[in-house]
């Protein structure tokens, strides 16, 4: 199934094509950029970790996992970001040539996520310094968002960094921030579209 990618930056398009090819080669499946395919990507990540381990236990933070992060995080993360772009009103923020700085910005609430950073953590099995995987909201709402996420249903430890879990966190965050912002403004009117300049003004 061919999916339109013309709105994606050229850097992202190239990485997505590579990701689709990787999964096609290993599993014979064609990714179609829907949220349902994130479970396939999670399975792919576990398969490459198992292959790297060569029958051994590969604990979180192992150097061999770090190798996979640098090898695969930009490729798989670009695809994850494209899934997000099709599921939510958001756009890519490409800063220079360093994929660790790339993110997606939501268009009606201040919420920034790093799909590439999320994949880095899924491969590493733990937080990875320098990959910017943390969600960033407007400072006025960060504490409220943290409180909301703290009462979300717990997930098994081995699913904590899964992309399917990360997607659910983004669903919860987007809905919570959108409704909270609307209530704070005391209006039922649609929220205004946010430009990159609006993000710069709020987040710096």
List keywords for this structure.
204 residues, alpha+beta, four-stranded antiparallel sheet
Percent strand equals 5-15%
Helix proportion = 40-55%
Q: What count of structural domains? A: 1
The number of helical segments is 7
Radius of gyration: 17 Å
- Derived from helix and strand composition plus strand pairing, the structural class reads alpha+beta
Unreliably modeled segments: 1-5
Number of strands: 4
Strand order, largest beta sheet:
1-2-3-4
Order of helices and strands: HHHEEEHEHHH
Report the principal-axis shape: globular
Summed over residues and divided by their number, the pLDDT gives a mean of 93
Major sheet size, sense and barrel closure: 4 strands, antiparallel
Distance between the termini: 40 Å
Description:
The chain is of the alpha+beta class and 204 residues long. It has one domain. 55% of the residues lie in helices and 6% in strands. Helix 1 crosses helix 3 and helix 5 crosses helix 6. The termini are far apart. The N terminus is likely disordered.
Question: What is this structure's SSE topology?
Answer:
Blueprint: H1 10-27, H2 38-53, H3 63-87, E1 90-93, E2 103-106, E3 111-113, H4 115-124, E4 136-137, H5 139-150, H6 163-185, H7 196-203
């Amino acid at each position: 199934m061919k999916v339109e990618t013309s709105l994606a930056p050229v850097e992202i398009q190239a990485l997505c094509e590579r990701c689709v090819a990787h999964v096609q080669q290993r599993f014979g499946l064609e990714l179609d950029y829907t949220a349902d395919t994130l479970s396939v990507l999670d399975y792919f990540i576990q398969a490459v970790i198992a292959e790297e381990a060569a029958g051994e236990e590969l604990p979180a933070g192992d150097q061999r996992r770090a190798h996979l992060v640098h090898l695969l995080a930009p490729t798989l993360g670009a695809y994850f970001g494209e899934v997000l772009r099709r599921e939510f009103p958001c756009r890519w923020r490409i800063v220079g040539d360093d994929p660790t700085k790339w993110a997606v910005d939501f268009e009606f609430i201040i919420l920034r996520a790093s799909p590439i950073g999320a994949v880095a953590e899924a491969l590493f099995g733990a937080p990875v310094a320098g990959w910017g995987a943390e969600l960033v909201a407007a400072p006025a709402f960060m504490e409220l968002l943290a409180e909301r996420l703290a009462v979300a249903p717990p997930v098994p430890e081995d699913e904590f960094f899964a992309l399917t879990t990360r997607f659910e966190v983004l669903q919860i965050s987007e809905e919570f921030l959108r409704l909270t912002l609307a209530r704070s403004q005391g209006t039922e009117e649609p929220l205004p579209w946010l430009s990159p300049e609006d993000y710069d003004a709020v987040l710096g």
